[in-house]
Write a structure and sequence with these properties.
Oligomer: single chain
Keywords: Nucleotide-binding, Plant defense, Repeat
Organism: Trifolium pratense
Distance between the termini: 36 Å
Protein name: Disease resistance protein rga4-like
Order of helices and strands: HHHHHHH
Radius of gyration: 19 Å
GO biological process, one term: defense response
Number of strands: 0
GO molecular function, one term: nucleotide binding
Number of helices: 7
Helix content: over 70%
Shape: globular
């Protein structure tokens, strides 16, 4: 049960990392590479959560790993929410500035401070994820193909575009198409 929640948090985190708003904000603030690395790490962890669910009943080490993972996933999700809020604040204030203020604002010390803060926070979270991944390799957790029940709060997206990370167990079909 806890892994289903963690699986949902990991999925939410990946969706946030893939969102257009966060990509734009990261590109403007020069932290795109750090966010891509973070996304790849979370995707790797998400792949083994179903196996961890099965093994945690028999292994205290896996239970401890799941607990440590939770202690990293939640702050990472909060950090991305904070970045998205900063982006919304900047966009809200944007129409009220004239062109001179926009140019001056782009060289503002606040912008450099925000970039520095973002980089430091992302690196701190990434280090915590790296520790979790390092511990994961010692637990012999394997990626599992499976379906996790969707909760009611997930809305249905109607689009022909699907994130590759949302496709589970369709590798053979994908290879036939490609």
């Amino acid at each position: 049960m806890a892994e289903t929640i963690l699986y949902s948090v990991a999925t939410s985190l990946i969706n946030s990392l893939a969102s257009a708003a966060l990509h734009e904000f990261a590109r403007i603030n020069g932290v795109m590479g750090e966010l891509e690395r973070l996304k790849n790490t979370v995707e790797s962890i998400k792949a083994v959560l179903l196996d961890a669910d099965e093994k945690q009943e028999k292994s205290h080490a896996v239970q401890n790993w799941v607990r440590r993972l939770k202690d990293v996933l939640i702050p990472a999700d909060d950090l991305l929410d904070e970045f998205l809020i900063q982006d919304m604040i900047q966009k809200r204030d944007e129409p009220h500035r004239n062109k001179v203020k926009k140019v001056l604002r782009s060289f503002s010390p606040n912008k450099f401070a925000l970039r520095h803060k973002m980089t430091n926070e992302i690196e701190k979270i990434q280090k915590m994820f790296d520790d979790v991944v390092r511990d994961m390799t010692g637990l012999n957790l394997n990626p599992k193909v499976g379906v996790v029940e969707k909760t009611n709060n997930e809305w249905r997206e109607t689009s022909s575009y699907v994130l590759e990370s949302n496709i589970i167990g369709r590798d053979d079909d994908k290879e036939k198409i490609v």
